Amino acid sequence: MKESNVGTIGVLTSGGDAPGMNAAIRAVTRAGIYHGLMVYGIHKGYDGLLNGNMKEMTLRSVGDIIQRGGTVLQTARSAEFATEEGVNRGISMAGVFGIDALVVIGGDGSFRGARDLARQGMKVVCIPGTIDNDIACTDYTIGYDTAMNTVLDAIDKIRDTAYSHERCSVMEVMGRNAGWIAVNCGIAGGAEAVIIPEHEFDIDKDIILPIIEGRNRGKKNYLVIVAEGIGRVEEIARYIEDKTDIITRETILGHIQRGGSPTMTDRVMASRMGVYAVELLKNGKYNRVVASRGGKITDYDIDEALNMKKTIDEELINIGKILAL
Ligand code: ATP
Predict the structure, then answer these.
(1) Which residue lies with its CA nearest to atom 27 of ligand 1?
(2) DSSP assignment of 106-138, as one string?
(3) Per CATH, is 147-258 categorized as 3.40.309.10?
(4) Which of 9, 68, 186, 244 fits as disulfide partner to 194, beta carbons 3.0 to 4.6 Å?
(5) Which residues line ligand 1 (CB under 6 A)?
(6) Class of the CATH domain delimited by 8-143+262-307
(7) Span from the CA of 38 to the centroid of ligand 1 (angstroms)
(8) Residue 97 alpha carbon to ligand 1 centre in Å
């Protein structure tokens, strides 16, 4: 491995917040200091880079954060940064602070920003941090496990009341245009039907039929999970009521899914990815996206990573259907 000439790095969180981002910030900071680097924490994502909103991190400034949800560096969506002038200003501001390389924790929008910086000569490493698990090059994104456990906890609670009243529940879960949270929580929560953006659906065949068949087999309550990318939960709930005469209640879980203390999996993955990101920089490897493949941490070229397409795991969908019987 070639030795790097990186002496000072910046770390930022960008896009939607995700539980475990703090564990990643902590890992980048501590691994950076361990390897003799100076580390700046950049506040509010790319907006903070543009405005020089950053301060030096110490071992202690990341103490007592591994267990906290959200991001202590805060995050933002910066329209100004997503322009040529914005990117150039970001590069100049990094120069003012002597930052040689940047670690960006966020989703694919944030990675596009990092790619633009890389094209202008900045050294970058990206860490996937989003509850949606919608980044193609990696099996896992930081925050995904915590979000799914939050959804599952809500499903279990709603199931108690649905059982007591013999109702149907329609629940909208997050995931943007990806159905990963929906599919996994459908299996873990025992849903009758899971509707995701990756698949076309027919409401009669995919929702009404399994509910009626379930009722005929003696089921007393029903759960339909609808991914955020589909939406229309109220319309779906009214349709179920009309077609089945089963009282149906809809729930949009919303931002509760983004909060909370990160699970063990998220903390460990964030720690592994954060340390790996710093090691890449130390070893002179830039413009990479850190990824988890088959349980191992690895990395991809940023352009290659952004051009990859993620497909949903059909095996998981099939398991959900078999077990909904
Ligand atoms: P999540 O999907 O979890 O919300 P994300 O990183 O995809 O995370 P975005 O809002 O898409 O969230 O992107 C975050 C920021 O990254 C944007 O506010 C913008 O500053 C920058 N960004 C997004 N897309 C681009 C792009 N095409 N070019 C340059 N910068 C971009």
Answers:
(1) 112
(2) E-HHHHHHHHHHHHTT-EEEEEEB-TT---TT-
(3) no
(4) 186
(5) 14-16, 46, 77-78, 81-82, 106-110, 112-113, 116, 130, 132, 176
(6) alpha beta
(7) 26
(8) 23
